[in-house]
Amino acid sequence: MFWNKEMETLRGRDLEELQLKRLKWTISQAEKVPFFKNKLRAEGLSADSIHTPDDVRKLPFTYKTDLRESYPFGFFAVPRRDIVRIHTTSGTTGKPTVVGYTRHDLAAWADLIARNLTMVGLTPEDTFQNAVNYGLFTGGLGFHYGAELMGMMVIPSATGNTKRQIEMINDFGVTSIHCTPGYALHITEVVEQMGTSLPSLRVGVFGAEAWSETMRQELESRLSIRAYDSYGMSEMFGPGVAFECTEQNGLHIWEDCFLSEIIDPKTGETLGPGEKGELVITSLSKEAMPLLRYRTGDITMILEDDCPCGRGRRIARIMGRSDDMLVIRGINVFPSQIEHVLLGIHEVGDQYMVYVDRKNHLDEMTIEVEMNRQTFSGELDGLVGLQTMISRKLHDALSLRTTVRLVEPGSLPRFEGKAKRVVDRRGDL
What pTM does this model have? Predict the structure, then answer.
């Protein structure tokens, strides 16, 4: 098992030696996969080509399209008899990515989740409600087994039936909940509509979609909790790759299990600390499906300063995905930027939708914004001033003109899983 206090603060030469040893092993394991064997041979590379962890940059990138083209089991480095579970990605186009796990992989994955939950102060005395999908999505079983490993009582509530979720929190004395941030906002809304509260709840673990610092403040204020950001992806076990500590200032990547780089998504050039780009990860402990320099598509940066907690490398909150980034009249826009502005305006609610159209050969962005129930008078007429103010704040943040439409509370879609707040209709024309 990897989980121990010394591993959390492993630094310097000891860390580099461990990374080098595991990187060489990973390359040897990857060579059992025809895709990697051919790629490495073409470049004249092998485990013997690697002398420091930084030599990972010699290796070729791996893309999601590579995994899809080898559907379903083409990236497995072990015989199928050694695969004890599979998960798939939640992609909406084409074939999903299939990820396989050995018993060793499942133990290592549970261990990573246990580290994360322990890092934010949870103990075996806590009760953990896991309000995410328990299917092929990795968030359900990933957190379930990690929370059990550290000894918490786990409630596998899954998604849906929000009022029942709230009853369980209060009936069972739940102290920590895991769900998407969008669903956490919906729970908050229903709690307030019911006129109740969640007095036992003190920790929220939220991931699977990008969310803003403003949303964190909103959740912490309205639920009276501490909200922590969780990051992972199915291709790298699932959740557990990086997690916030109690400082809530960046997510710590577990450097004994993952090598991380930030690159320019267009050129592939390696970027330094403080430079925003695409996160690339190489696994160091995956047995069934090792991955070399995997292009995650997630936009972030490595933080330059050390964390007061003493743990290692941190990345900034995920700002969006390179493939989710909207380019409107030449300006890059991430949905999280819009969310950050809207959640800072008292008069509006938590829900919004973004629509992108092309009119007269120009891109136009329209944002529908729900009114706050407490400030909604029952009429939308006469709110031109508020619309103008929201448009101005969005323009200041995005450097882009937008059309804002205010709508009644409760009229926009709610999401139990990953929120789908952007509808790009330019391709429909």
Answer: 0.81
